[in-house]
């Protein structure tokens, strides 16, 4: 039982993550090569049981980001795959979205794909993401694979298994180039970006290809791009578009280069944020607004699915300016994507599922959260605006922002059932708030959203940690502090919930 528990601790939502490199105090290695071998073998058995049972030898692609543990874990996962007689195709340095596309491209059609990455986490972490032709695996499927891995016997090493190189990233880059050229109504030979200056910050992750293999061949000036070289120690800044230092770096790159556009990716390129020519950051609510504005003419009256922490001002922009429907759902990129798929299947047109974190998936692109594909859509729009003599900021000129916003993460301590305790906290908070005349939004797909005359407060359970994030937004100075004090008083008596920050 304890051995299974150790494997299950590696689950992080619909991904697997753990400590892969020793040396950081108080962080023991949990994602070992031996564990990764068994996980790789369990993935093959999962595919045979659920997706490809008619095939004796499955074709599985393996790629990785720039982390220093990538090669060791790649070797381990390949051994696990080969032990189950899979044919393995090594893609080398790759992006997470590209790995999914290896199951889609006609000349590849992999049965499955594995990406070795831990997204934006520190250098000592790593993980695994899994894809089939139906998309990324769900939480319960990851749990099934981990349970099977825990039950596995010692992996039998096979030296005669088939392992081949696969030139995935050139094919993926060509796919993106074609999308840009088609979007601008021309061919790649026309060099449609020859009048554009676009800089890229890859954060020393896997995103450097976008500048060198997508933008430059289309004629773009990429001078001033930064940190394109893979370096798994991430020496310049955390490769995370949500990090202030990362956004400051791409803003500075745009200003220094006098570029038309700046793009920043996370380590494995499934997230993106941007900077316009004047240094204005396009992230969080602005990124959602920009993508919705780009899509609105093609999808009039459609529904945009976002996570739960988007602003009231974004709702007003989507609904009053763009005449779309804003469906504020739950945190977690798989949650918003699955809700987008559900809506479309039910007959409600929903072209975009997007989180404030920079995860965004389009119906037209297999519902794949792909930072590079978002960048393609943005580049086409910004280029078209420049050719028409318009400032690209016009897309979101009507978007307003809250005067204040903040987030607290309230820790749940000294209890073995943090989710159960959090559920109790939410129920009591809602009841106490109603008793003093503060109403909760209905429906609420996540947590309790309390409505004030100048803003809102959302308390929810963390997806992964024993914490309760509290998000606050207000249209008046001091509003967040005022709401925080009220909520602190409503949470009085919960001894295991740390409200000292409020």
Automatic annotation (TrEMBL):
Highest taxon of source: Bacteria
Entry protein name: Phosphoglucomutase/phosphomannomutase, alpha/beta/alpha domain II
Keyword terms of this UniProt record: Phosphoprotein
Coiled coil: none
Organism expressing this protein natively: Megasphaera lornae
Domain (Alpha-D-phosphohexomutase alpha/beta/alpha): residue spans on this chain: 12-151, 194-279, 284-386
Family per similarity comment: Belongs to the phosphohexose mutase family.
Pfam families registered for this protein in UniProt: PGM_PMM_I, PGM_PMM_II, PGM_PMM_III
Co-factor requirement: Mg(2+)
